[in-house]
Design a protein that fits this description.
- By secondary structure, the chain is of the alpha+beta class.
- Strands 9, 10, 11, 12, 13, 14, 15, 16 and 17 form a 9-stranded antiparallel β-sheet that branches. The chain has a 4-stranded mixed β-sheet with strand order 3-2-1-4, with helices on both faces. The chain has a 4-stranded mixed β-sheet with strand order 5-6-7-8.
- The longest helix has about 30 residues, at about 300-330.
- It is globular, with a radius of gyration of 34 Å.
């Protein structure tokens, strides 16, 4: 006879639900109101665990569970660490047959199943969303053998209520199937996969404080493999067994406490299970710590700086402990070692200190570590013993250490090595040596850059730029930066560029101009490290002007001889120009994968080549230059079987500025596309795969109207295209001849689909230009989550150019769809003529520059009206 489980009475459900909810709420509110400290977070997770334990025990009893079953907490709940919105994972352990007991009958089994179902239903009824599994001991053993994830969950099990004898049998049976070596290997592979998933850095701008490298999971992995190997169940037990030092125990406890505190407050502030420190929540969490904003940094930056320092320490300690545990499990604590010198050994490809006290007894050996790492073939990393020695010797790296001439000479040797520079500096940063030796660098370790442009912390960005510069000098990477690699092959002192890379952003976050402050820092470094005066001056110039070349290339008219002349005057000579070009390319490419593109590369290269000509003493001869381009264009036309003179009718209508702004391939393409349409009244649109990078190049030829540019932008916006560049020209006969570089974000098509896209653009854009109706209202496109968290105040600047003949309009705002069309529409409504557009997208910020003219701009009141309307158009939607 089936005996149904007695459901929890309705009143009991309501009472338990209220008790669970109110108790949890009270604990969290008390936590938020208390001082933000690690002990407070530890108390909270333990109190929440006990609170849920008590509720589950009441439900267990109410469900009429048989005396032979047991309720077991597993996973994080099993550890006794229940964060405000963590999963509550439980195992309902059913008796199969304990040693010496008989199997139960079918009726009893049915009754037990009904009781279990009633228990789980009751949990959900009161709002306790448990993750549950129902297993016998034999089933647990079978699953543990097959799945290392199950092994991990069971490893941290804890009896909540029920039969202790069954739980003891379960612990013994599951422990018997544990293979420490196999478990270690599996958890190591899991760790690597997880790190890769979370960007392989503890410095992600929106890190997961549980799963990211340096997060709580890294500490949990250490404890799991240590438990599996029988080496200890706590940090103090690991210290007793000789795996960590008392100092490291304190560091582990302190940094684990910091991460737990941040995670607990993140859960409490978010009101849900949220382990990511997303931009939306960083400020609120920071303010709950009592952090406030200053002129130099936001409150969220203070919080993230604290998080990154903790994550960095956890990363270091995880590496040390995992290597030590691997040696214990594998039994290779004393492998044969090759002597490198009296201070260092080769331990199976890892650099090992000859004795634990080496760095304390001989501080010079600290920097020598990285020099030996660079110089010794076959060394692929630092051993656990070396990492530990470096970690424990941080206080040795004091002011006296930094001023020691021998150490300064060693540092310069590291910079001048022919190989291993990128890896050596990354290791130096990971082990805190770089920040201890370059104290100015220490200030930017883990510092965020909330500008929607950089995707790395300042120290990681600097090391990325150093890597990029280094790659210019490595033949294997010549295919990535062909022109840069060519220039680098002729450069005699790479260390000057490396120093400039290390210092170009080192003054970020202080307030003031970081380029100027960084220039002061690099000048001091060069003086202290004995660089020749000429080399020091070059390094200082590069740091002070590391933003200049990208600004000129992306915002000014490179066809203007005065622009080139002014830039050449600022640079001064070819050596400085080459160095600045190499640093600029490396800097932009080290900022964000989204920022660099082939079109920006072309702009920089064009600026370099034109400035090179100016520095060579040759005065710009536009007539000769354009004639050479025309001749090259004629040759290209001939290759396409165009009849002689095909270009004539079009070229007669074009000003000199057209030939200066376009290269020969574009000039030939235009002539070939338009020779039949010189005086036509129907708009002509032609498109082709861009000869520079991804996307398409689009030619528009149409009788000019004040709203032509606006209609083009409106079409591209509606069709989902992003405009990278626009060359605007009006012929002598009143025709607009505009060329656009466009991309479709996320579009990946083959040649056939590109042909379809080209055909679509040519047809639809021509139709849009032929329209005579009023310009539609711009869409108020949605802004991204990041932009909402860090909005940019829109800015508009309208000023006359140096000749007072045209006007420079600069706008900057948070990027969103429809933005360029909104700007173009305002200009069209005021009959402002567009001559040049420089479209610059920096991550999720736009900085566009337009060269404009028109009678209305001579009126002060009209200027103010245009600027006001532009600010309204740029404002982010509410």
């Amino acid at each position: 006879m089936l005996i149904a489980a007695q459901p929890t009475p309705a009143g009991g459900v309501a009472t338990l639900r209220a008790r669970l909810r109110d108790g949890k709420k009270a604990l969290i509110e008390h936590f938020l109101q208390s001082r933000a400290s690690a002990p407070a977070a530890t108390r909270l997770v333990k109190q929440l665990t006990r609170h849920v334990d008590a509720t589950l025990c009441d439900l267990w009893r109410n469900a009429g569970m048989p005396t032979g079953a047991a309720l077991v907490a597993v996973g994080g709940y099993g550890r006794g660490e229940l964060f405000p919105h963590s999963d509550v994972d439980v195992l309902v352990l059913l008796p199969d047959h304990l040693p010496g007991e008989r199997l139960r009958g079918a009726a009893s089994t049915d009754s037990m199943r009904a009781s279990v179902e009633g228990f789980i239903t009751a949990c959900w009824d009161i709002g306790l969303e448990i993750g549950s599994s129902v297993r016998t001991v034999d089933e647990c053993v079978a699953e543990a053998r097959a799945d290392v994830t199950v092994q991990t969950a069971l490893l941290e099990s804890r009896l909540i209520c029920g039969t202790r004898r069954l739980y003891a049998h379960f612990k013994h049976a599951t422990a018997a199937v544990m293979d420490p070596a196999a478990f270690y290997r599996a958890k190591t592979l899991e760790l690597r996969q997880r790190h890769t998933k979370y960007e392989d850095t503890p410095y992600s701008l929106e890190p997961n404080c549980k799963e990211s490298p340096g997060g709580l999971r890294d500490l949990q992995v250490v404890m799991w493999v240590a438990r599996a190997a029988g080496l200890g169940r706590s940090w103090s037990e690991l210290a007793t067994n000789g795996l960590i030092t008392p100092f490291e125990v304190k560091q582990l406890q302190r940094n684990e406490g910091t991460l737990k505190l941040i995670r607990a407050r993140l859960h409490a502030i978010a009101g849900r299970r949220e382990d990511r420190l997303v931009f939306d929540l960083q400020t609120a969490v920071a303010e709950s710590f009592g952090y406030t904003a200053s002129k130099a940094q936001r409150s969220s930056e203070v919080l993230m700086h604290r998080y990154y320092w903790a994550a960095k320490a956890v990363t270091q300690l995880n590496q040390i402990l995992m290597l030590n545990i691997e040696e214990r499990i594998a039994g290779n604590e004393s492998p044969p070692m090759r002597v490198i010198n009296e201070r260092f050994l080769d331990r199976s490809g890892m650099l090992e200190v000859a004795r634990d006290e080496l760095y304390v007894e001989d501080p010079h050996a600290i920097l020598e570590t990285f020099l030996v790492y660079q110089q010794t073939a076959g060394i692929k990393g630092l051993s656990a013993r070396t990492l530990r020695a470096l970690y424990n010797a941080r206080n040795v790296m004091d002011t006296r250490f930094r001023k020691d001439p021998a150490n300064r000479a060693l540092f310069m040797q590291i910079l001048r090595q022919p190989q291993g520079i990128t890896h050596a500096f990354r290791l130096m940063n990971q082990t805190s040596v770089l920040g201890r030796y370059l104290w100015v660098f220490r200030r930017i370790v883990g510092r965020m850059q909330h500008d929607l442009f950089h995707v790395y912390t300042v120290d990681q960005h600097i090391l990325m730029v150093l890597r990029n510069v280094r790659r210019f000098f490595i033949a294997d990477h010549a295919h990535e930066y062909p022109f840069c690699s060519q220039l680098a092959s002729e450069w005699d002192k790479p260390e000057i560029l490396y120093i400039a890379a290390l210092f170009h952003d080192v003054a970020k976050g202080r307030g003031g101009d970081h380029s100027t402050l960084g220039g002061d820092e690099v000048r001091r470094f060069c003086r202290e490290h004995g660089l020749p005066r000429e080399d020091a001056a070059l390094a200082e110039f590069l740091v002070r002007h590391h933003l200049t070349m990208s600004t000129v290339a992306q915002k000014e008219d490179l066809s203007d001889a005065d622009v080139i002349r002014a830039f050449a005057l600022k640079v001064g000579n070819v050596r400085r120009l080459t160095a600045l070009y190499l640093l600029t390319v490396a800097d932009i490419r080290g900022t964000s994968p989204k920022v660099w593109n082939a079109w920006k590369g072309k702009l920089l290269e064009d600026l370099y080549r034109r400035t090179l000509g100016a520095l060579g003493g040759a005065k710009p001869n536009l007539d000769a230059e354009t004639e050479a381009r025309k001749q090259e264009a004629r040759q290209i036309l001939a290759l396409h079987s165009a009849l002689p003179g095909t270009e004539g009718p079009l070229w007669k209508t074009l000003e000199l500025s057209y030939f200066v702004r376009h290269d020969a391939t574009e000039i030939a393409w235009h002539a070939r596309s338009l020779w039949r349409h010189i005086e036509g009244q129907v708009p002509v649109v032609r498109a082709r795969p861009s000869p520079v990078g991804d996307g398409l190049q689009v030619l528009v030829y149409s009788p000019d109207r004040p709203d032509t540019f606006a209609r083009i932008c409106g079409y591209f916006d509606g069709a989902g295209f992003s405009i990278q560049d626009a060359k605007i020209h009006t012929s002598k006969t009143g025709y607009a001849l505009d060329t656009f570089q466009i991309v479709k974000p996320g579009y990946e098509g083959d040649q056939a689909s590109y042909r379809d896209l080209i055909s679509l653009i040519e047809h639809q854009l021509a139709a849009a230009l032929a329209s005579t109706g009023p310009l539609p209202e711009p869409s108020r496109g949605r802004v991204s989550r990041r932009v909402k968290s860090f909005p940019i105040l829109p800015r508009v600047s309208l000023r006359p150019d140096e000749r007072a003949q045209r006007w420079l309009l600069s706008v900057s705002a948070s990027d969103r769809s429809g933005l360029l069309y909104a700007v173009a529409r305002v200009l069209a409504q005021h009959h402002v003529n567009l001559q040049l557009a420089k479209i610059t997208t920096l991550g999720e910020r736009v900085e566009d520059t337009f060269l404009v003219d028109g009678p209305v701009l001579q009126q002060t009141r009209a200027q103010l009206q245009i600027e006001s309307e532009l600010l309204d158009a740029l404002a982010a939607p509410k």
